[in-house]
Recover the amino acids of this structure.
């Protein structure tokens, strides 16, 4: 009987382990993609403090492209609102950088950062 249980447990692990591994391999691209949002926002901050408008533009454009895409299946109104705020403020950030308006860019960056924090906050609470 004990041998039967041990065999069953071993079989169960053999089935579960590859399943877990393939799941993390599948979710890796999303994780890496999400990590890039952080890199772009650091690049924007770098551009803001050095008044390098090209750096700001590049980061804002990349984030704006991100905002057009659907990252996960989440149809809640709160999520969609944060996604829209994110997309909108990356757009105003891009415009401010085009106009070499450092104060406008700083304001948009701050507004965008609110959407980063708020979206993550609501995902954790859902
Ligand atoms: C509209 C919602 C939304 C906005 C806005 C948003 N994120 Fe995310 N973020 C997600 C989702 C969804 C994931 C992946 C799933 C998860 O981790 O729950 C994620 C994951 C991440 C990760 C991976 C680590 C982690 O916590 O899982 C980082 C880093 C990240 N986001 C940074 C940012 C930054 C920086 C911004 C703003 C420039 C931002 N995000 C804006 C929804 C958002």
């Amino acid at each position: 009987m004990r041998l039967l249980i041990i065999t069953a447990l071993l079989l169960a692990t053999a089935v579960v382990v590859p399943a877990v591994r393939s799941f993390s391999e599948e979710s890796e691209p999303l994780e890496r993609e999400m990590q890039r949002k952080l890199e772009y926002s650091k690049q924007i901050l770098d551009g803001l403090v050095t008044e390098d408008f090209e750096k700001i533009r590049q980061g804002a454009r990349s984030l704006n492209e991100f905002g057009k895409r659907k990252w996960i299946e989440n149809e809640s109104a709160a999520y969609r609102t944060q996604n829209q705020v994110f997309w909108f403020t990356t757009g105003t950030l891009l415009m401010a950088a085009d106009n070499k308006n450092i104060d406008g860019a700083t304001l948009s960056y701050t507004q965008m950062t609110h959407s980063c924090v708020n979206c993550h906050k609501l995902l954790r609470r859902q």
Summary: The domain at 30-125 is CATH 1.20.120.10 (Four Helix Bundle (Hemerythrin (Met), subunit A)). Helices lie at 2-50, 53-68, 77-98, 102-125.
